[in-house]
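Tokens help. Our protein:
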Amino acid sequence: MKSEKKIQPAGWRDLLAVNRLEKACFDRDAWPWMDILAVLTFPGVVRLKAVASGNVIGFVAGDRVKKNTVGRIITIGVLPEYQRQGVGRNLLFSAERALDTAIFQLVLRKTNLKALQLYHKAAYRIVDTWPGYYSNGEDGIVMEKTGGSFPVL
């Protein structure tokens, strides 16, 4: 029997779980624990976790920029063993709903094809490329979504 996956608010008590998730998902690009603590505590940041059987299996954080007109997804990750089960999509749409802006943006590695596919299906489009954005020199792809149509989860 599959365990039920829930989207819940995240907070500072999730620091260790989110730190482990970041390392499992992003390896060399994982945020340092101080950055994770900041995103889990700074006011105005939307932070949500996906939980199954009491364990954090996914995390998303976002904020509002440009006079609160643009919602940025600043990190989103799902443990590898829970990927391709709708967890990332549910986190993404939940964050968009919580950010409640007309435009959403995010950045990903150009080689992250799974994420690229997810974002295309969620109505994001490529709007820019940031050469050498990642620590190893790989380009970052900037994607944007306009409009606030969110599927029912």
